[in-house]
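FAQ: What does a multi-protein file look like?

Like this. Sequence, then tokens, then the next protein.
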Amino acid sequence: TQLVFILTTIISRPLGGIIFGYISDLKGRKLSLEKSILMSGLCTGMIGLIPSYKDIGFVATLFLILLRFLQGISLGGEQGTSISFLIEHSSPKSRGFLSSFCCVGQQAGILLAILAAAIYNWHIKKSGTEEVWWRILFIFSFFIGLFGYWVRKKTNETIDFLLDRHCSDKTISLLEESKLFIFKNKQLFLSVFFIVSFGTFMTYTVFVVGNSHLKQLADSLQIFAYIQYLMSLLVIFSIPVFGYFSDIIGRKTIISHSLAAISALSIPFFQSLQSVANYNTLVVAVLLAISCGAFFSVTPTIVAESFPTRSRCINYAVFYAVPAAIMSAISPFLSALLISINPTYIAYVIILLAIAAIFCLKSFDEPTEVYRKLNKYSYEFLKP
């Protein structure tokens, strides 16, 4: 069953990115974001209303798989559209900083989910009642979805999208233009593939595998019982900082230095999983979390900036979501194999992917070059 859920997520997220990316490029970022959050809230809330396996048997499992699949489609449509919405609403001088809050929201959501699960597990151990409370957590998503829909309904469509829709060549269909862009930019696709593969594998091995092993060191150093929360908080607070500096020194500078830092820290980090806990391990974990925050802050932005406005969201889904889904399927099995041999081997894979990603950075332009080449209209031209 767990394997089915993993496959459901891997298939549904890139599919959702393509579906909602097409809607976003055709009808607008605002409409796509409204529909995706409503769908997400509805599907998540309905999971809390599914009758138990005792009541309806295997049908409950089928309902759960279906809702998880639809939930994955809605979530898959979020990132590409939301990052496009933010960069198109921002001044070129603050685009990196403002768009980084998309990643802040993602990381904060993960941290809140971890905290909710921890509180729920604590309550179960204390009261012994399990049937009702997990349902309440899911049903609450109805209200979160409605609130998110209300917030997005109050926003305006991006000026970049409105201008591009008015001025773009209507003789070529959106799908045809996207297909032409993909075939003409195979090197860019390969570059995004390696960068996304690095990010996906690094995220799983550091924040899932690494944290689970570090928590086992809490017997010798108590702070490791909370290492997951500490690293998540450091990532959240470092993302906007590096997003701000990316507007000053460039996206590629931030990415290249973060790749180098993560590579250098990954060997002592994974070596520490086999040793006794000490403060050196804590320092490495802290520095690694900050370096990951730097990488997360810029990567979605520089990828989205590489695409023309008219087909930005659907191209983002193909270039970004598809490689992420492929690596999400590979990472658990590859990391389990490497841990069974030697955890340090994970660091070697991270380093190899980082080297490939650094060489691929030449395919990306800095923001000023991107907007000169791909967009005829920008925020600056609209100032009075």
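And here is the next protein:
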Amino acid sequence: MKKNRILMVTTIFSEEAFGGAERLSLDYATKLSDEIDLTILTTTSLSYLTWEPVLNPGEEKKENMNILRFDVKKKRNLRSFNRYYTSLLKKKEVRESDFQKFIELQGPFVPELIEYIKNHHSEYDVILFIGYLYYPIVLGLPFCKNKSVCVLTLHDEPPAYFPIYKELFTDEIFYSFNTPEELDLFEKIFHFTPEKYRIIGTAVEIPDEYLIPYEPKPFPYLLYVGRVDEGKGVYRLIEFFRKWKKQFPSDFKLIIAGGGERIESDEEIESLGFISEKDKFSWMSSAFVLVNPSPMESFSITIMESWLMGVPVLVNSESDTMRNHCIRSNGGLYYQSQESFFRTMEFMISNKQKRKKMGENGKRYVTSNYSSSRIKKLLLDLIDEMAGENRV
């Protein structure tokens, strides 16, 4: 039987990448590549901050995948982009050309990738777009809406409300959401419920090679794993943690692991930078709690991994997705202010058995809802349905 031909469009595709959408792209590609004829359309970059070309352009064959990488023609100057973006938010009247400039400055600017979609989309049964914000999606999607599945990884952020996205995301597209909360957010922003959608998420499993006994660390600590930048709430977490330590002195530390902006280590904060998967799970294994301070998450793989390690989580309640993960699983707590951060920490310190139970509850939640076999079946069912309508 002929395999379905699928084209996946994603801004970054590499095992070296360290973001939620990048992880999701890899996960979906790995799950699907044995069952379908899969081509990945992506860039030569590893950083969404600069889009600097790092990898070789051209074609690469890897584990039943055909990867086509296109050079980014303009690196992103983050300072210039932020200045333009801020001016755009302040404008009372914004022209279409302003939004077009925003998309180009934001990047990744890969016109050759768009040409490939324009010239070859008819050769594929389904086009799978990962993300919503960036140039390849905004410029590529209009050529093939009726055979596209958009995995938006949507966040409640100002650009999502720009008219250019309301014009782009219409009801002829098939949508895949990570959580019910992401669907709710879509309805809030775009003012309609899609006719065609699924709630799938991404598989979260820890490879056996990392499920080993680790040497416990000699001090208690909170752990953050992820990109280090203002938008992820990291600096607010640091502020809350320092004030908590000042009011309630202890030997607790805050461990920060991840790429992005550099944070200096001191007696209270230990900044590890980018770390290996093995080191990540080593730090997770004996963490007092994993903290995700981001106000905007469409899924959060790191809290799922923490639960699989039996470690409870503490999340920013501004993220509906993470807050409701905690409520559905009873696997963690959430805070919205300095005072509630203090209270949740006091509760976890004073209730050792309940904290342990939260970790166990979280593990059960992940294995029930986000196993590889379940996610793979949901994806293949979606693709079979779409391909049946668009077979080439």
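Q: Is there any per-entry metadata?
A: Some entries carry free-text notes. For the entry above: DSSP finds 14 helices and 14 strands in the chain.
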